[in-house]
UniProtKB/TrEMBL annotation:
Descriptive protein name: LysR family transcriptional regulator
Keyword Secreted set for record: no
Organism: Leptospira stimsonii
Pfam families (alphabetical): HTH_1 (PF00126), LysR_substrate (PF03466)
Family to which this protein belongs: Belongs to the LysR transcriptional regulatory family.
Stretches assigned to the HTH lysR-type domain: 1-58
The UniProt record lists the keyword Transcription regulation: yes
Leader sequence segment: none
GO molecular function annotation: DNA-binding transcription factor activity; transcription cis-regulatory region binding
Superkingdom, taxonomy of origin: Bacteria
Keywords: DNA-binding, Transcription, Transcription regulation
SUPFAM superfamilies: Periplasmic binding protein-like II, Winged helix' DNA-binding domain
Database matches in InterPro entries: LysR_HTH_N, LysR_subst-bd, WH-like_DNA-bd_sf, WH_DNA-bd_sf
Length: 286
């Protein structure tokens, strides 16, 4: 069992498929399958449950995955340390939510790319829960997430602050939102989204029933459906300003307890940050 084999193993786990892992690694599938079979023979155990829908880890496979993530993280940290020339270069994988990606990051990414063209930037979008997990599993070098989750394994750098508001169709007056509650649908992201959690807190604060929910995976889709009269939602005011859409919705302010939310940039405390990541943090550090 060697480092290249562990990297192949990790990719199969992440992709959930031998075929997709081979495509990602630019290998033929037979090579990926053969490397995994050699690992299973060496370890005298099955690592994957294979089915038509893909590959999932066995109990022993889960144990190996945990160790492999730590081994590969340390290996990659050592490789970075040995190759550091002082000039940021190589891959840098960053995660963020949709608001941060569309409103806050374009100028930062552009400046960083112009200053350090040898760095291969990539941006992954997701909700806070998914991004936290990705940083913990070393799939991302760091991520912008909303505050409010306790975890001692992260280094946190304050980044931005958002002002959250309730948005309703502009055909409704502010006082009609609560009085017409039973006729409204609640437009939200899926479970795990910080905005959804804040909206739920507002609903409880107003002593309203849960209501009918419709889930989306796009800020633009939620806003468009609010404008068309489909229901209400909770969105960052910066997003409405950036899209110049405030005149098309009715805005309800939140209580001081719920209104503000801070975005922080998290890194894995156990890993040494390279020059590429340190320079990226300096772009927004206050």
């Amino acid at each position: 069992m060697d480092i290249p084999s562990l990297r192949i193993f990790r990719e199969v786990v992440r992709e959930g498929s031998f075929t997709r892992a081979a495509e990602k690694l630019h290998f033929v599938q037979s090579n990926v399958t053969a490397r995994i079979q050699v690992m299973e023979k060496e370890l005298k155990t099955s690592l994957f449950l294979r089915s038509k829908s893909g590959a999932s880890l066995t109990a022993k496979g889960k144990i190996l995955y945990d160790y492999s993530e730590r081994i590969l993280a340390l290996t990659e940290e050592a490789e970075r340390a040995l190759s550091e020339s002082g000039i940021p270069e190589g891959p840098l994988e960053i995660g963020s939510g949709q608001t941060t990606a569309s409103v806050r990051l374009p100028s930062i990414l552009s400046k960083y790319h112009l200053k350090f063209p040898k760095v291969r930037l990539s941006l992954r979008q997701g909700n806070t829960e998914d991004l936290v997990r990705a940083v913990l599993e070393n799939q991302l070098d760091g991520a912008f997430v909303y505050e409010g989750f306790p975890h001692s394994q992260f280094l946190e750098t304050p980044a931005f602050q958002e002002n959250l508001v309730i948005v309703a169709p502009n055909t409704m007056k502010r006082n009609e939102v609560v009085s017409s509650w039973k006729q409204l649908s609640i437009l939200t992201f899926k479970s795990g989204c910080t905005f959804r959690n804040r909206l739920d807190q507002w609903i409880q604060e107003q002593s309203l029933p849960p209501g009918k929910r419709i889930e989306f995976d796009s800020l633009d889709a939620i806003l468009s459906c609010v404008i068309s009269g489909m229901g209400i939602s909770l969105l960052p005011e910066s997003y409405l300003n950036e899209r110049r859409q405030k005149k098309f919705v009715t805005i309800l302010p939140l209580s001081s307890k719920l209104r503000k939310i801070r975005t922080v940039f998290i890194r894995n405390r156990e890993l040494k940050s390279g020059n590429s990541l340190n320079e990226f943090v300096r772009m927004f550090e206050k």
